[in-house]
Amino acid sequence: MKQRDKRVKKKGSRGKKLAIVLTILVILGAGGYAFRKPLAVMAFDLFLSGQVEKKLEKSYSPLEGEQPKPVVKEQKMEPFSALLLGVDQRANEPARSDTMIYAIIRPEESKVLLVSIPRDTYTEIVGKDKEDKINHAYAFGGEKMAKDTVENLLGSPVDYYAAINFEGLRKVVDALGGIELPITKDIVNKQKDHEKFTIKAGKPLYDGQEALNFVRYREDSDFNRTKRHQVFLNAIVDRMLKLDQVSKIPDLMDMLGENFKTDMMPSYIIDLSKKVLLGDAPSIKGFTIMGEGFRKNGVYYDAADEEDLEFAKQLIASWNDPDTDPDQLLMPDAREKAAEEAEIEGSKESAERKPAETVQAK
To answer: Where is each Cell envelope-related transcriptional attenuator domain found (predicted)?
Structure first.
């Protein structure tokens, strides 16, 4: 009798879950727009968050010598920083960080700042006692040395890191059915010692291999390549946040597999994901630290522009401060706007002086 009762209870439990799923599908299908986000989060909570958290445990990799950051349940999530490492490891080659981005996430406002550091930036490699290209820090000492080196360059701490192998992202892009990329002219990789490929312009969606080639293309400039990495991340986020992709999250985590590592606790990622699902589409702003090329012992490097570096530090300080009002955040285009305003003001003053000068001449 007891076993029969248990079976009845299990059937009843499954029936309740099925009823909830059907209700959600009916409301979503009927166009109950005002309830779509809360319902998506409820569905994620009920049926997906446990699976995702279990899969994320495989990617959880705290840095050696550092204590895991405790997850504190708070009504309000504070801004935090993360070092995003795009690792490009091909067959029979050592891993290297082709992408290094200091990101600041403000969950409450759905705002993200991406400060990109070109891979050839010449700087001190912390723990190696030498100056070299910043992307060599990952090759020398993995995520820990990359994190320490970026903190030293920018003068700001990194709360978390996330390292993603581009090969894993290729599979994710295919699983999402492709991503949108603003390619207005064919991209052709044709130099003698480079992998040959062509990415056609004007396609509505680009598959995983095309997206991977988009971030790997290097025959224009390191600056443009860094900007493409930001565009690629934006495109992934846009595609992921579409409501019809929520159910695919566990499968996507499986595809990333060993290609994804982070020291952010799985439970915190789950809380952050729900915050993103409930909030507005993220507003992502980007800034790249420019540099001037030079050669040393026959090797090409970028010397970081001091004004850009100082401005990057100001951006980070503004965005990292939880007391900064969203409307008062320093924006990446603030310097250009200030210069334009100064030029307009100068033109006005010049125009006002001209009549007086003409009168004197007469």
So the answer is: 96-241
User: What confidence tens digit (pLDDT) does each residue in 278-323 have?
Assistant: 677 778 899 999 999 999 999 999 999 999 999 999 999 999 999 9
* CB-based burial label for 34 (10 Å; 0-12, 13-18, 19+): exposed
| Alpha carbon distance 146, 134 (integer Å) | 8
Question: Which of 254, 64, 96, 61 has the alpha carbon at shortest distance from 172?
Answer: 254
Per residue, what are the HEC states of 57-70?
A: HCCECCCCCCCCCC
3-state DSSP helix/strand/coil % of the chain, to nearest 5: 50, 20, 30
Whose tokens are 């992709």? That residue is: 245
Q: How many whole angstroms separate alpha carbon 344 and alpha carbon 132?
A: 42
Q: Is 358 exposed, middle or buried (0-12, 13-18, 19+ CB in 10 A)?
A: exposed
Would you say domain 59-337 falls under CATH 2.60.40.1120? no
State pTM to two decimals.
0.78
280 Cβ partners below 8 Å, 6+ apart? 110
